[in-house]
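Justification of computing resources. Each target in the renewal requires a structure prediction run like the one illustrated here; the chain below, 284 residues long, is used simply to show the kind of job we budget for.
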Amino acid sequence: MSIHVEAQFKGWTKPGPVPPGALGHGPATEPGESLDAISGHFRIFQAVDGHRFSSDDVLAAWYGTQGCPSAGTVLDLGSGIGTVGMIAAWRLPQARFVTVEAQPDSVRLARKSAAWNGLNGRYDLREGDLRDPSILGPDERFDLILGSPPYFPVGTGVESGHPQKLACRFELRGTVADYAATAARHLAPGGVFACVFPIRPADQLERVRTAARSAGLALQRMRPVILREGDEPLLGLFLMNRATDLPARLREDPWIEPPLVIRRADGSIHPEYSVVKLSFGFPP
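Resulting structure tokens:
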């Protein structure tokens, strides 16, 4: 029986490879799960009532792959259900990946997504805490390391009763400093660590800077993200290198890019973000 693969969505032609799942050769959804479009023909399994991917994850994958487009080896820390890694794998079709995630349910969903998207041959999913030195070999090095750390210390906000949602926002298993320290240990020479983190209030931005300095990393560039035109930027996208891999002038004066605006004041998608979305296989 032939299977028709839908090539267009609302006037947009989907780019990129057609994975085995789209041809009927991947795992199926189970009760309580959904299978959702992510990049081109790629899809991702998510819990209907659990953590679901957000623009934060999408932007981390985009910014990291933009900052290290020749990466042959990629590490995704705190990989959750696999959003960041899957998008990066779509953008870097020759790269090999290692992902680290502590929540068994999230790892299970990510394994299904990797199989559906035909990534098993270059995708090594590891279940464990990124702070555990045994989860990664001491000699494992990566050209690009990605991370979407939780944003808030426990006790500083309204905490979800769902374990997936809770761990994605609150620092149950490490802070941005732990992500930076792990990244610094496993960067290849000249490698890049990319992450997303709040820059408001100001102490959040300082947490990123302190984490980088403590790990021996230097900010190479940062791009603020404005969710709606006219608002203050709430998030920042960061690229870091080992400090010793950058000349002094860059270590001391990172490039702060113009903000990326997600939506116009009237709520429509900003034209630049439409083009950014196209670059990682999302409809504009």
